[in-house]
Task: inverse folding
């Protein structure tokens, strides 16, 4: 028999009844039932119930065992007594009667429990991550992550992609975040950069004649952490294709991403035919370029109802040409308590408030009409407004409706498709400035009114991103997304259009309120590449210096090409049903970008600093 085990803790069934077996694992839980000890023995593969009674030679050792001790058990497999079977376990029909026990690794008092799913402080969980990873849910998440990556890899190869690995030590590239720099020992004063993405390398692979590339690529960005973005590093499904247009990339990748979601969605519906939503439309309808389409609410521009109206606050705003008023419908939200709650939430977000209209049925003085109106309001039925006074009519309530007037209010209600018992909330001003808040308000209304279907995955392409944006910080035009994308209209657009009106062949994938992928058709003509960077403030010499490899490659026959990168971490997070990337990453840092387990970052020794020709700058006091 093997030194440590003949079977794993998830392998035994009634087929092994009567056999002598050897198991090794952790003491997941120890229970004393009237002097008979029951040990749930756990390993990576599962859990087996071990029974130790006072007559067993193993009893003395079992009495000493504690939670998370590692032990070896020799014992006899027997069926569980009738009525004690556990259908939730693969080994739930049997138990092992212990004949011999060996302690392989005793455990000190635990800083956090492994049994159960008890919430524990993040600092403790990350410092003792090796214990945290023994917990069932987290252990399962990490295994699911591996299975999802396997599925991605398999589906990419089925689509004709070839897997390559690109360098980790490379040159700095403007990917929109700070680089992690690595000092060179052999070249004093010079630095490598860890890749923010394999962008240039994957394009060079296309220049080299390889038709379809992919890899599960580690990427490094010195960014501030948040729940859906880990500090330091992340992984992406990176890919590139030659001789393709935007539709070709969509046709290749939709079945890969859809297939992965369907495989791991646990039966939840997954979008079959992805909608294509232009960037500007996404902002107007949803207030974000990564909309959660499970939320049915669609914002609308209702400026015309307020222009020149008696509601002077909005009317005066609309005297400025760029300003608009947007409405967020709230089906079923037409109560004063809900509207006040939303107004308080808006103030907590730093806004002066959130204007609203509540929709009700007009009450009449004829006998019975008030009662009828109330009943129908609770039923939320549509009542035709045909001018017949015997029918209650939809009207607006609240300060905005009172000042706007009922004729304008009814026209607004009709545009938004509201019914009695509904409400609408309003944001006004410069859309560029209020769009983010409007999107948050849409999300808040949808969640508060339980309108969001949590049990589905809604995927969509977001297309037609602006190529440039104006940087208020640097007071200049800059790239709004990937600087290597092809502008729509090519070199002619770069030469003749206002840069801020140029759109890019740039696209994202949105799922349930997260951006899970981004890509584009590449700018493969050297003269167009130089012009694109020139408009963003980089001269040709800078382009050649910083992107020399790609610039040279474009001179020697560059195929039209494009691709994308999908965020592995975010996809796994969604499929595991969590909202924090630390729940699907094996050894993550904390929110302060500290590795509490390994103690990183730490100080370098004087010898290391001398070898790297580095002297730390003195820290400013105070």
Result:
């Amino acid at each position: 028999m093997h030194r440590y085990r003949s079977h794993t803790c998830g392998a035994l069934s009634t087929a092994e009844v009567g056999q002598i077996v050897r198991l090794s694992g952790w003491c997941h839980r120890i229970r004393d039932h009237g002097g008979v000890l029951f040990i749930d023995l756990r390993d990576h593969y599962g859990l087996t119930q071990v029974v130790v009674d006072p007559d067993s030679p193993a009893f003395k050792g079992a009495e000493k065992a504690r939670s998370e001790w590692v032990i070896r058990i020799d014992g006899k497999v027997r069926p569980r007594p009738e009525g004690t079977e556990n259908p939730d376990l693969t080994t739930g029909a049997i138990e092992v009667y212990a004949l011999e026990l060996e302690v392989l690794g005793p455990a000190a008092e635990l800083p956090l429990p492994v049994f159960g799913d008890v919430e524990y402080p993040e600092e403790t969980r990350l410092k003792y991550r090796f214990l945290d990873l023994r917990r069932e849910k987290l252990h399962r998440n990490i295994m699911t992550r591996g299975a999802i990556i396997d599925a991605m890899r398999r589906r990419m190869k089925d689509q004709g992609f070839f897997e390559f690995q690109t360098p980790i030590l490379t040159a700095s590239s403007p990917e929109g975040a700070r680089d992690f720099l690595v000092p060179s020992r052999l070249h004093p004063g010079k630095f490598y950069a860890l890749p923010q993405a394999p962008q240039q390398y994957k394009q060079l692979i296309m220049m080299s004649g390889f038709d379809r590339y992919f890899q599960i690529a580690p990427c490094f960005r010195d960014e501030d952490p948040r729940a859906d973005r880990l500090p330091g590093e992340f992984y992406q499904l990176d890919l590139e294709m030659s001789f393709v247009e935007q539709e070709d990339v969509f046709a290749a990748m939709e079945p890969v991403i859809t297939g992965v979601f369907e495989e791991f969605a646990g039966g939840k519906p997954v979008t079959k035919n992805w909608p294509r939503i232009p960037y500007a439309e996404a902002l107007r309808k949803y207030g974000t370029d990564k909309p959660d389409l499970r939320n049915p609410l669609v914002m609308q521009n209702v400026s015309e109802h307020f222009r020149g109206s008696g509601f002077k606050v909005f009317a005066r705003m609309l005297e400025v040409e760029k300003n608009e008023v947007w409405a967020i419908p709230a089906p079923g939200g037409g109560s004063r308590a809900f509207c006040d709650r939303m107004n308080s939430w808006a103030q907590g977000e730093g806004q002066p408030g959130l204007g609203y209209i509540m929709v009700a049925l007009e009450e009449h003085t004829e006998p019975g009409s008030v009662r009828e109106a109330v009943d129908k309001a609770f039923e939320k039925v549509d009542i035709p407004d045909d001018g017949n006074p015997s029918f209650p009519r939809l009207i607006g309530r609240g300060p905005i409706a009172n000042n706007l007037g009922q004729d304008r209010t009814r026209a607004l209600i009709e545009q938004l498709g509201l019914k009695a018992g509904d409400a609408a909330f309003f944001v006004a001003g410069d859309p560029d400035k209020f769009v983010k808040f409007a999107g948050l308000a849409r999300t808040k209304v949808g969640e508060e009114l339980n309108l969001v279907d949590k049990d589905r995955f809604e995927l969509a392409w977001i297309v037609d991103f602006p190529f440039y944006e104006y940087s208020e910080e640097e007071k200049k035009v800059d790239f709004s997304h990937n600087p290597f994308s092809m502008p729509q209209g090519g070199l002619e657009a770069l030469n003749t259009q206002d840069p801020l009106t140029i759109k890019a062949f740039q696209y994202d994938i949105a799922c349930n309120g997260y951006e899970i992928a981004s890509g584009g058709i590449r700018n493969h003509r050297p003269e167009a590449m130089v012009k694109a960077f020139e408009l963003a403030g980089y001269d040709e010499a800078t382009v050649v210096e910083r992107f020399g490899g790609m610039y040279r490659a474009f001179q020697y026959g560059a195929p039209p090409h494009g691709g994308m990168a999908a965020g592995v971490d975010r996809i796994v997070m969604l499929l595991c049903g969590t909202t924090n990337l630390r729940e699907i990453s094996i050894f993550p840092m904390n929110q302060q970008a500290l590795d509490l387990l390994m103690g990183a970052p730490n100080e370098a020794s004087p010898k290391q600093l001398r070898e790297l020709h580095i002297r730390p700058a003195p820290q400013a006091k105070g």
Q: What stands out?
A: Residues 365-371, 374-390 have pLDDT under 50 and may be disordered. DSSP finds 20 helices and 22 strands in the chain.
